[in-house]
Design goal:
Blueprint: E1 2-3, H1 9-18, H2 24-34, H3 49-58, E2 59-60, E3 64-71, E4 77-84, E5 89-97, E6 118-122, E7 126-128, H4 137-141, E8 143-146, H5 149-165, E9 172-175, H6 185-196, E10 208-212, H7 216-225, E11 230-234, H8 240-246, H9 255-269, E12 273-279, H10 287-297, E13 302-308, H11 322-334, E14 339-341
Parallel strand pairs: 1-2, 6-9, 9-10, 10-11, 11-12, 12-13, 13-14
Antiparallel strand pairs: 3-4, 4-5, 5-6, 7-8
Length: about 350
């Protein structure tokens, strides 16, 4: 049975043609899925009963079941564990920033769900991950399989439907959940194209962010496509010897190669690159490391997002303290490199960056 979210609008139109349905039905179904956020054939009351029945018999509207929902103690973060039809587990996270009263809207949508109140989704592109980053719980689990484009899209739809009931909307989508998005390049980009479709969900390209550990060929391909989607690089070290201990991919793509790919990206797109940096106490949070990082980034249009390390069971490193984090930030800024210290979110429910591992809560 085909997953409806795996279909492009033209593929849906071809399917309906096979069913001897008029072409305009495809647009009705597309709008029902992505504008009205319908998640079952019964909701398409503008379609005939026989067509709804055919959809129910031939199309799957849900590629997974919600196994667990966990809410952080401050109510600002929700983590959802999804069980895929083959039994694999993935996780996605909703992070709330600001009060919806700061940015009210009577008809929330992907177009107006922004402002002081942000609702950011962190979604997965793979079950597990092949990159093996030592401080990442997903990397510690290992690779299971790629997600289809529809399985990626469906994560967004589940949260969009939930937020709509609360008169809210998704404002940002980050591909920073389980998996390496550029390892599943085709399906990741197809999911973005589907969510960005102006006749459908119409989610602005600049409100997507893709995070990669630095797959150089894919960074260059991404640059050549000149998308408006934001690019983030998980860097975490300023020299190859240090980085390879944390991110095994550095054996294949050295830091200088990653930097050259980032320079190419900026040259092709005129867009800045964000570098993600997990601050680990005594490892990569010293002024000396900050100066070494600044030397690597000098002249590149970029920004550093630093966040104290989130704990995982398989890594003994500790998060830096506030004073050391501020010194790291100030050292970078004195060298002309903009830096932000990011908030840690959802730590009590293992929903922070690097903590997603599909662990089942009984």
């Amino acid at each position: 049975m085909k997953l409806i979210y795996d279909l492009t609008c033209s593929e849906l139109a071809n399917l309906l043609k096979e069913w001897d349905e008029p072409a305009y039905r495809a647009k009705q179904i597309w709008q029902g899925l992505y504008q009205h956020l319908y998640n079952s054939p019964e909701q398409f009351t503008n379609l005939s009963k026989p067509l709804r029945q055919k959809m129910a018999e031939n199309l799957n509207f849900m590629p997974f079941t919600v196994k667990v929902n966990q809410d952080s103690s401050d109510g600002q973060t929700r983590k959802t564990l999804f069980e895929l039809r083959d039994g694999n587990l993935i996780e996605a996270v909703l992070m709330r920033y600001g009060d919806p009263a700061d940015n009210p809207h009577p008809n929330p949508s992907p177009q107006n769900g922004r402002g002081a109140s942000r609702r950011t989704l962190c979604i997965s592109t793979q079950a597990g991950c092949a990159m093996g980053c030592v401080f990442c719980a997903t990397g510690q689990v290992g690779f299971k399989r790629h997600l289809s484009s529809g399985e990626i899209v469906a994560q967004v739809m589940v949260y969009a439907q939930m937020l709509k009931q609360q008169n809210e909307a998704v404002s940002n989508i980050v591909f920073m959940g389980m998996g390496e998005p550029f390892h599943n390049y085709e399906n990741t980009m197809a999911s973005i194209d589907r969510l960005n479709d102006p006749d459908g969900y119409n989610f602005g390209a600049r409100r997507f962010t893709i995070s990669t550990v630095g797959l150089v060929p894919q960074i260059k391909r991404f640059a050549d496509e000149q998308r408006q989607v934001n690019l983030a690089i998980s860097l975490h070290a300023a020299d190859d010897e240090s980085r390879v201990e944390m991110l095994p991919i550095n054996k294949r793509y050295k830091i200088d190669q990653v930097m050259e790919a980032c320079e190419y990206y900026v040259m092709k797109t005129s867009r800045r690159v964000t570098f993600e940096w997990a601050l680990i106490n005594g490892i990569n949070d010293t002024p000396e490391v900050a100066k070494k990082l600044a030397a690597k980034l000098r002249g590149l249009m970029c920004h550093v997002n630093a966040i104290p390390l989130n704990p995982t069971a398989g890594y003994n490193g500790k998060a830096t303290d506030r004073q050391r984090a501020i010194l790291f930030k100030e050292t970078l800024e004195q060298a002309g490199i903009p830096c932000t210290i990011r908030m840690r979110r959802g730590i009590d429910i293992n929903a922070g960056c690097g903590q997603l591992a599909g662990a089942v809560s009984e």
